[in-house]
Amino acid sequence: MKAEEVLHAEDVERQLFEAKEIIAALLSGQIDAVVDSKTRSPVLLSKAQDALRESEERYRRIVETTDEGIWTIDTEGTITFVNGRLSEMLGYAAGELVGKQSSHLEREAAQANTAARVERSRQGSSEEAELAFVRKDGSEVWTLLKTSPIRNTDGTYVGTLAMITDRTHHKQAEKARHLAVEAVRASEAEFRLLTEAMPQIVWITRPDGANTYFNQRWMDYTGLTLEESSGDGWTKPFHPDDKPLAWQAWQNATATGGTYSIECRLRGADATYRWWLIRGVPVKDASGNILKWFGTCTDIDALKQGEARLRESEGLLRIAGRAARLGGWSVSLHDLHVIWSDEVCAIHEVPSGTAPSLAQAIEAYAPEFRGTVREKFEACVRDGTPYDLELQIVTATNRRVWVRTIGSAERSSSGAITSLRGAFQDIDDRRKLQDQFRQAQKMEAVGRLAAGVAHDFNNLLSVVLGFSELAIDGLKPGDPLRADIEEIRKAGNRATALTRQLLAFSRQQVLEPRVVNLNDIVEAMKPMLNRLLGEDIDLTVLSPGPAGRVLVDPSQVEQVVMNFAVNARDAMPTGGVLTIETSNVTLDEAYVGRPAEVPPGRFVMLAVTDSGLGMTEATRARLFEPFFTTKEKGKGTGLGLATVFGIVQQSGGYVSVSSELGHGTTFKVYLPRTDRVAETSLSNPPAATMNGSETILLVEDEEQVRIVACAILRRHGYNVLETSNGGEAYLVSIDFPNAIDLLLTDVVMPRMSGRRLAEQLAPQRPKMRVLFASGYTDDAIIHHGVLEAGVAFLQKPFTPQALLRKVRDVLDAAAAK
Fold first, then answer.
1. Domain 324-426 belongs to what topology?
2. What phi and psi values does residue 238 have, to the nearest 5 degrees?
């Protein structure tokens, strides 16, 4: 091949199209189309054929040496010629493609496009298209297809010539570029999503410090727009005192290429400043040049405030250590040197800086605890076993004090125990509180026992009192049995009082609270108190001003005052003075002399002071225990002050006592003050008569109680419908044709409670009154020992008079409405 025949691709394309008439002639077999149709000379024909063959050979070499794939197809789309480059491009052997339909080289979905291109070529159209051919092995090769129609000399369409350029690498590069662009876009989108979701402020700046990006958190906090923050606008929110430091840190970071980090204050949109940690890292190229800075601002205001509080608390901790009576100690095993902190010295009541020997430190414990301390100390020295003990020490002033001592081993880097360290705390007050708590638990246990037996015992006492009263009423005054039955009744009354005292100190009695003035109660009791105290004791009642109102059960307050008066009388065997004082007090944290057990608040105080013998600290510690008494055997039950304690606590109040042997005793009761209006009278007026003619539906599951109640009521003229349970009472109510004036029902009964029965009968008999009776203190009609408003209640055990009075009161109250 001559050098001048090696052509560039564009020259090849030009010459190929110049030769298309020759190729068309070759394809159509019309050799004579290229010679003069009027000249039939064999010589001329031979020369023409030689020229044609030379031209064909020259163009064939061009076709076979070009980098472009070339084919020709006929009018039906059948491949008639393929150069070697196209066969190689599509993975076929030479000549293997000739005779195949060109559409078979495309995917089935694109084959319709081939027929369309052939048709457009038939119409004389040349075109250029990018399409994928299917190689023999099934893979794809992307190409640029340029087609041109082939016509013979008379213009008849005889096929299509195509030049096919392999663009697979170009397509792959283009796809890679597209994927890279999409990846960058996705990465940028993810970056923005991430930064917008972050609680921190995120920023990007140029190397010169001009901002190029802030996430929304910056705008939300500072109130600046992105435009206002661009350039050096990001410095606007810096606190004036912090801005120079921020700039200096930025200059250092840009000069060294290191991390930018500073804590400073930034102004928020609300014009307040918060502390932020600002950190930035440089993003560098392969040569180490800084392209940009990427950074965050983290809100550390709470941390900074916490650090400030921590610094304050460190000082407070030292104060708290003194307030909590907590100190530290250490013992060096090298020389057995003992160190006590100032607080440990104070607990031992020795001067600060005292450094006792190990033997002296152990000897400071009470004798009964020294063996335990030595044993635990030696185990800690030997094995590193920590200990935590509560025991007593004997101070330098010979006082016994409960302390808590904690010890643990300190080791060197080699693991050897080198010293012992620990804490030492005065817990004497806590131990006293624990003793008080155990005492309270003891009282609660007794209370639960009392409440547990109260119901059955009260039912039995109701029977004893009822039948003894009925028996006495049936005997003549001179009957010898009358005195015996009187003793039975007296014993029943004493048992009733004892039961109520047990329920009182256990705070499980039933109260009927009313808003009253404490002065009125005390004033009304003066005549009775004078008779109780006797002539050798002077009673003084002091009321500096009108006392506030309290919500209490008046009868229970009277019992409290009576118990105080009885104890005062016994403490003044040779006479003295008893002073009762009422006053309003408001206790706050700063109130001098406020008892520790009384919280801050508004109270009415009742103070009872006697000039009697007083009491020791040991007696005062057990004063409110049930059954504790200092009186001779047979002269006291030990329930008086326990009852006072229970009544006061159940009324929401507090009681304290102060006394000194030989200097008398003062009891103070604090009852919460209320602003509600006081009720006009302290008790209901007594009924004019105990008799009646009304109809009463009696429901009582205890047979003996039911019998005695029926007997009492019928003897006094009442018509009694007697039933033993709720279901029976319901049926009796339905069948009874006349009015039923009162439902007298026990509260706790099998299957249907008294309250449920009352609710069931209310629609049938809306005018019927209800009186509940029970020996329980936790009935459904009672909440924490206090009656619900408007509920008529008869506490068991009851006497005939109590039953008749309560029935009459309920019926008369209904008649008055």
1. Beta-Lactamase (3.30.450)
2. -65, 140
